[in-house]
Design brief:
Nuclear Transport Factor 2, Chain: A
Length: 136
């Protein structure tokens, strides 16, 4: 298994909206955990909750990898997502605002497939930027 190569391919596939490539890399018991701590079990649920939710919220969105760290079967990727919030994202109606957010993604591989994945993101900061949350 080449976890680094697979991870890079997954990020390129997201930029291309190539859901078949992403789906083929996911383990049958795949679990996606979003920044809110909610778990989505299974390939289709995880694909929709994570990968496709980000893309539908930011239709012109692009991911830029900043760094990748591999330790055995775990890959930690720091990346930036940029795009226009023109679709519903994480339950938030479109605002039309430009988004630039740093995200940390942790992937655990099993049987050469993405078994578990978790995104870490400052959602409060993002929601303040989008104007849907006011800071007191």
């Amino acid at each position: 298994m080449d976890a680094l190569k697979t991870t890079r391919r997954l990020f390129e596939a997201w930029n291309d909206r190539d859901w078949d490539t992403i789906r083929s890399a996911l383990h049958p018991d795949y679990v996606y955990t979003g920044p809110d701590g909610e778990h989505s079990h299974g390939i289709d649920n995880g694909l929709i909750a994570g990968w496709q939710d980000h893309a539908s919220g930011l239709p012109d969105g692009r991911l830029e990898i900043k760094s990748i760290h591999v330790d055995g079967n775990v890959v930690v990727t720091e990346f930036t997502v940029r795009g226009t919030h023109d679709g519903t994202w994480a339950g938030v109606a479109p605002t039309g605002r430009m988004v630039e957010a740093d995200i940390c993604n942790v992937i655990e591989f099993r049987d050469d497939k993405v078994f578990r994945e978790r995104d870490y993101l400052d959602t409060l900061g993002l929601f303040v930027h989008l104007g849907v949350v006011q800071v007191p």
